[in-house]
């Protein structure tokens, strides 16, 4: 009977793969050069992970600081929103987490994987759909906490999620995070009055 993969070795490989993919992206990613750079073999990577796509997905899942995963802690700290100003504070903190300088190196790769999930759902799964749905569901529940009807809460959440994705993509192209930050706060200035129930 073959020996099961060593979980410590697997985790170490995932850490190395994650750093490699962050540096090099997905577009020209090939197992053999990556394995050589990591001091292993493509056969060893396939032994531990089965496919290149599974390897990449597992490596990205190591990011325990993803804003969506950190949101429960954020809500514990700030509390569930009780009014539009409270919701705005939470959304501003989520924006800060997304646009923090230590996360910017990960954003191009995350967007690349999400785009790949649209083009190749058989390889990467419905990742883009899951990310958008996860954020929309979370924000819909917060808008519902304010007393907005379900359909209106979902519409407000969709508008906010889609706009924020756009505001994140633009500075990845031109590097102007200050402009994106100003635009984000201007967006909230326009949206927040519509979050009242009366």
Descriptive notes:
The structure is a single chain. This protein is an all-alpha fold and 198 residues long. The protein is built from eleven helices and no strands. The protein has helices at 7-24, 31-38, 42-49, 52-60, 67-78, 84-99, 107-119, 121-124, 127-145, 150-174, 177-191. Helix 7 (107-119) packs across helix 9 (127-145), helix 9 (127-145) packs across helix 10 (150-174) and helix 10 runs antiparallel to helix 11. The longest helix has 25 residues, at 150-174. The mean pLDDT is 86.
Write a short abstract of this structure.
The protein has helices at 7-24, 31-38, 42-49, 52-60, 67-78, 84-99, 107-119, 121-124, 127-145, 150-174, 177-191. With 198 residues, it is mainly alpha-helical. The radius of gyration is 20 Å and the shape is elongated.
- Report Rg: 20 Å
Into which percent range does the helicity of residues fall?
A: over 70%
Query: What would you call the structural class?
Result: mainly alpha
* Average residue pLDDT: 86
Which segments are poorly predicted (pLDDT under 50) over 5 or more consecutive residues? none
Main sheet summary: none
- Broad shape: elongated
Q: Report strand %.
A: under 5%
- Figure out the total of helices: 11
Number of strands: 0
The helix-strand sequence is HHHHHHHHHHH
Give the termini separation.
68 Å
């Amino acid at each position: 009977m073959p020996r099961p993969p060593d979980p410590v070795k697997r985790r170490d490989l995932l850490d190395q793969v994650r750093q490699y993919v962050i540096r090099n992206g997905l577009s020209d990613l090939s197992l053999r050069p990556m394995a050589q750079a990591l001091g292993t073999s493509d056969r060893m990577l396939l032994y531990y992970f089965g496919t290149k796509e599974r390897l990449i997905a597992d490596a990205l899942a190591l990011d325990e600081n993803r804003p969506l995963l950190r949101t429960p802690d954020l809500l514990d700290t700030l509390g569930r929103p009780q009014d539009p100003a409270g919701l705005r504070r939470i959304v501003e903190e989520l924006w800060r987490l997304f646009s923090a300088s230590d996360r910017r190196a990960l954003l191009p790769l995350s967007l690349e994987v999400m785009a790949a999930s649209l083009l190749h759902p058989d390889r990467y799964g419905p990742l883009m759909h899951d990310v958008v749905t996860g954020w929309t569901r979370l924000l819909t529940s917060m808008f519902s906490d304010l007393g907005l009807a379900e359909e209106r809460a979902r519409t407000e959440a969709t508008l906010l999620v889609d706009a924020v994705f756009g505001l994140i993509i633009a500075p990845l192209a031109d590097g102007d995070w200050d402009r994106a930050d100003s635009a984000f706060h201007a967006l909230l200035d326009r949206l927040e009055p519509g979050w009242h129930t009366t």
